[in-house]
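User: Assemble these into one structure.

Assistant: Restating your components, then the assembled model:
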Amino acid sequence: EVHLVESGGDLVQPGGSLRLSCAASGFTVGNNYMRWVRQAQGKGLEWVSLIYSGGSTKYADSVRGRFTISRDSSKNTLYLQMNSLRPEDSAVYYCSTDETFGFWGQGTLVTVSS
Amino acid sequence: EIVLTQSPDFQSVTPKEKVTITCRASQSIGSKLHWYQQKPDQSPKLLIKDASQPFSGVPSRFSGSGSGTDFTLSINSLEAEDAATYYCHQSSSLPLTFGGGTKVEIK
């Protein structure tokens, strides 16, 4: 059975940093396309970033230059390093696979506020 | 950026009724359109991939159709457990985008 478990969400001040983690079991992060999707309270889904199986990365315009997606195959974990956080980055952040596998984690809450 | 426009935004339906949700893309996306169901305080769950392919374990009352720019999610014989918000999502090109969602309420 596949599980994706996000962690690292917290309350942080504007301009601060956080690193989110997505630990996988029953599924190999390093061999597969993985992505981060966020959802602000009461709002819809917004794609944030993805990493292809080959390692290349892509970002939404709203986070490019501030967020970095990465993975550690030895830990079977996906990461999202978030710097220069803004109030509009406040959301539940989900890690997920693409639709080939259709797996999503339960999400981790990031709140950016002074 | 490909914009996905869902309609309606909200639908109140009695059990056993049929529900139809549409998703229109601002440009052709072939069949790279997927449908998700999200219940309150839960993560999204994949229902239909590639416009019409049911995802593993999804009840047969859920079906999808369409290609190019116009897509439809149908729920035949709605059940109480189908109360949720439904999102379409395109993976044809970056940035990946989602529709605004359709909330389905059970009368």
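The longest strand of chain A covers residues 18-25.
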